[in-house]
Amino acid sequence: MLGVEFAAEGVAFAHVRRMPTQQPLLVSSEFIAADKDADVAEILRSRLAKLGLQKIPCNIAMSSGTYQMLLGEAPKVPAEELAEALRWRVKDLIQFPIADAVLDAFLLPEDSARGTSRMAYAVVAQRNNVTQLIAQAKAAQINLQAIDIPELCLRNVAQACCDTKRGIALVKLGQGGGTLQIIRDGNLYLSRQFSLAYNAGLLDDLPGDALVLELQRSLDYFERQMRQTPPSHVYLCGENVTADKLTPEIRNSMAVKIELFNLEAGLQLGENIQEHNLSLCLLALGAALREDAVGVV
Questions:
Q1: Residue 93 pLDDT > 70, yes or no?
Q2: Which of the following CATH numbers is that of domain 160-266: 3.30.420.40, 3.50.50.60, 3.10.150.10, 1.10.569.10?
Q3: Most-buried pick from 13, 167, 238, 290 (CB within 10 A)?
Q4: Does the 68-128 domain belong in CATH 3.30.1490?
Q5: 294 band by pLDDT with thresholds 50, 70 and 90
């Protein structure tokens, strides 16, 4: 399976091969930097053609800012009718006409809202954003199967590389902020975005106090509002997030273990993989690891 992300700074792709009784193999993974005016679809087409990957089934990860993810009470309808039922609930929460929206939805686990109604996430994108991705896929001559969102791509990566039975938090940091996902038994329980004074450069330290505060806020909400057992681990990843930046002060700041996320805990890395580029290909990797039917198209 191939995963692709068309990002603001270029395009990332990851090729994963699944084998019986073995960990998935990350055969190739690259981030190709490109100017905003560059023809990234043609750049991707040329590179995939050279690698012989154009006919492999492909999932695309949407970029942040091209969709909204809205949490609300799930209507009591069959699962196949959930998205359509939520469409009319979210029409006043988006900045464009509901007729111009592409919408999908997924339920949170039944125990995610103890004492209250079951909740669901609605994923809403303006139709033009989706058609643009489909057009880029066509121009790149890739075999598009599905379009997914970063939150579920990160869920896929966590599920492949971590023991999620007790629950884990995966935190991905980038320039100016980060995201936190809490995953248990392969299910997404909580997704949150936050701002952070982190420039994501090779020599930029993590703002420890501010980061720990955001982690505490998220875990407090998870425990007190959602009435859930805290996750067993918090794993950090992202752009230039390295072991030397994870200081003892950060590691020892909470009762939960805080560690650097390790892709090799659940994946075999091909011999040509450039490890320093993996953080830029994480969403593409998550798209390639997709196994379920949740997605935008």
A1: yes
A2: 3.30.420.40
A3: 13
A4: yes
A5: very low
